Amino acid sequence: MRYATFPVAAAACLLLLLAGQNAANAVDGKAIIEGECASCHDMTGPAPATAEGVIARPAPDLFYAGSKFRREWLVGWLQAPSQIRSAGTMFLNHISSEEGKDRIAEESIKSCAAQLGPEAAQAVADHLMTLTDDTMKIGIVDPMKKFSMSKARLLFTKQLPCSGCHQARFGQRVIGGVSGPLLTEAGQRLNPDWIYARIENPQYWDPKTWMPKIGMSDDKRELLALLISSMK
Questions:
Q1: Residues 87 and 164 in one domain
Q2: Are residues 96 and 162 in the same domain?
Q3: What is the Cα Rg of the chain in Å?
Q4: Are strands 95-98 and 101-104 parallel, antiparallel or unpaired?
Q5: 162-203: per-residue pLDDT in tens?
Q6: Rounded CA gap, 182 and 83, in Å?
Q7: Cys bridge to 128: 60, 65, 98, 107, which one at CB 3.0-4.6 A?
Q8: Is the pTM of this model over 0.85?
């Protein structure tokens, strides 16, 4: 028995050594966020309660990122960031008037500089997914549920002012304004339940947002959430 137990003990020691090395080499997502992201993004909240605070906000709030985003999208985006807001975080900061007409001064908009490696992206996404709003209802929207695309499109483009601020793709066409986030790939980016919650009460998430709170039935709100979730 003395000789039989030695390999087991040696193997146990080796496993402990490897575990210690892996722990030492583990990527700290929270540390990366604190060092590279928190200078632009609010990681603790609450959202600005004044117009001045909204105008001065350099990047979107992330203190409820785990409720808002899909993890797999975060992992990919953190490695190769793309622009989500065509007119910047606050469009008023990027308006240029030329010959009596206003335009978005795209040259003044700075894209996120994060280009993390795969391991760092995984670690940062893991930490962001822990930042949730405990009051948000989950399981409200089933993105696999069938819905009427024609009714949803009419609601988005005609009955409600969604397309005035958001660009969305319908078939081969991209239509809509640029003062809000792009919705062309929102189904990959956003949690369907958060889409529903944001439509239901935009001011809960951002007290000074210019997105209006519009009274509508639960069915219409679900229809909008399903439509946006299908945009991929």
A1: no
A2: no
A3: 22
A4: antiparallel
A5: 999 999 999 889 999 999 999 999 999 999 999 999 999 999
A6: 9
A7: 65
A8: yes
